[in-house]
Amino acid sequence: MWKWLHPYAKAEKSYALSGKLMPWFLAVALPTFVVGIIWGLAFAPADYQQGDSFRIIYIHVPAAMMAMGAYSTMAIAAFIGLVWQIRLAEMTVAATAPIGAVYTFIALFTGAAWGKPMWGAWWVWDARLTSELILLFVYLGIIALYNAFSDKVLAGRAASILTLVGVINLPIIHFSVVWWNTLHQGATITKFDQPSMATDMLVPLLIMIVSFAAFLGFMVLYRFRNEILQRESHRPWVIALVQQSSSSVNKRG
Amino acid sequence: MFNAFLQIVRKELLGAFRQQSDILNPIWFFVIVVTLFPLGIGTDPALLARIAPGIIWVAALLAALLSFERLFKDDFIDGSLEQMMLAPQPLTWLVSAKVFAHWLLTGLPILLVSPLLAVFLSLQESTFWALFLTLLIGTPILSLLGSIGVALTIGLRKGGVLLSLIMLPLSIPILIFSTMAIDAATFGQSYIGLLALLGAMLVGAITLAPFAIAASLRVSVS
Fold first, then answer.
1. Backbone dihedral region of A120: left (phi > 0), alpha (psi from -120 to 50 degrees) or beta?
2. Rounded mean pLDDT of chain A?
3. Distance of alpha carbon B8 from alpha carbon B104, whole angstroms
4. How far from the centroid of its chain's Cα atoms is residue B149's Cα?
5. Helix segments in chain B, DSSP class H
6. Are the C-beta atoms of B166 and B68 separated by less than 8 Å?
7. CB distance A210 to A32 below 8 Å
8. How many CB atoms lie under 10 A from the CB of residue A51?
9. Residue B204: count of CB within 10 angstroms of its CB
10. Which of A141, A161, A169 lies at the smallest CB-CB distance from B165?
């Protein structure tokens, strides 16, 4: 049943497949971003309490969701890499970590920019903000650990172990609202039966979430391909690829 | 198998008693850091009692961090770590013995000097007991979490800073729950639930951390 998956444990096949998938992710990410951001910022109705400043959720919420989504991706990849000893999965962990860190930073930054007019302070030690900050620290720890090893195979494995250890952090983020129950408002859109948000506001938000997710996929594939090329740079197929592309550049030039 | 556990604990304790500064230095560090706060902030007893839980727990975290250096380092350098991997007993078990010995040498002394610090920071008796209980449950979790970090960074030349980058974020939940429990005790509320949460974290760490430590050691040694 899983036999079709086996060839993709080979770096060359995975490289080709991710190259084929990359444009599709970009094709989803760009139009949805343009539509979502214009709809959200210009056409969605203003909030009756927060006025126009609520519009930052069109960046903040997707970024925060993808910050955690990237971590889940890493955790699953780390598990696969450690259990079935698949090197490419460990490369995925390394490729995803910096992107997740950037998404986390965007979520924190937009949250702070929204908190200034709403709560009257750039930073409040609220449970969700704090756990998001911890998530950023965990990301930075993983990246630092990965970069500290000179042998990248060992680095990937060490980063995978640390990712799985850090998974404890995700449920804490999720339940922090319930446990500490402080300033941050509760989840709004995951309540599917009766979303506590007007449809006019919700639809652009969902579009933005799709866009951010697709862009995450695009960036992960991009970095994943680079990771493969760097690690396999001594392999014949990589050398052939480099020669091919440099000769085509020469022809054009 | 249990014999091997005791042997390792015995060897660790013997080694530590022959090099006593290794145990004593982190404890002195702990006491000195706590002493710095009244000097820096002022000696108002009400203020000190208010911030005492946080100070003591942060100092305990930093002291633990200092003591981790010697956890696997000597074994790694002289090759006994590789012998432990080749031993018939499972590595997770031997590693648990190492961590337990480490807790006896660093966590337990912190517990023993905590009454002194309670006097320094003018804690009430009920608050002190909450502090004592959270330290009793919390420091073993610190030892287990820190050992994962040590095992990951042991082969690296500049592992020290990296160890703190890895370990400190992971130990934040312990810090939060401990200080919440102590705060609850200060206001005369029940803090059993928070202790139970800490206890759950301890049980989880005891069950899972040895596997992570063993896996990390295998990465570092290979």
1. left
2. 83
3. 13
4. 12
5. 2-18, 20-41, 45-67, 69-78, 80-86, 91-120, 125-153, 159-170, 172-186, 192-221
6. no
7. yes
8. 11
9. 13
10. A141
Residue B166 near residue B180, CB atoms below 8 Å: no
**Greatest Cα-to-Cα distance within chain A, rounded to the nearest angstrom:** 63
**Yes or no, beta carbons of A161 and B165 under 8 Å apart:** no
Q: How is residue A89 written in tokens?
A: 């999965």
Q: Structure pTM?
A: 0.85
Whole-complex ipTM: 0.85
> Which among B199, B144, B198, B137 has a CA at the least distance from the CA of B167?
B144
- What's the token pair of residue A195? 């979303």
- Chain B residues touching A169 at Cβ < 8 A: 169-170
Structure tokens at A13: 């096949």
Q: B166 and A82: CB-CB below 8 Å?
A: no
Per-residue tokens: A49: 């309490």
Report the residue of B172, B177, B207, B220 to disrupt the A interface, i.e. the one with the largest count of A CBs within 10 Å.
B172
The verdict on A198 touching B (C-beta cutoff 8 Å) is no
**Rounded-to-integer distance, Cα B177 and Cα B134, Å:** 9
CA distance B213 to B209: 6
| pLDDT at position A195 over 60 | no
Nearest residue in chain B measured CA to CA from A130: B172
Strand-pairing partners, residue A47, are: A51
pLDDT digits (tens, 9 = 90+) for B63-82: 888 888 778 888 888 888 88
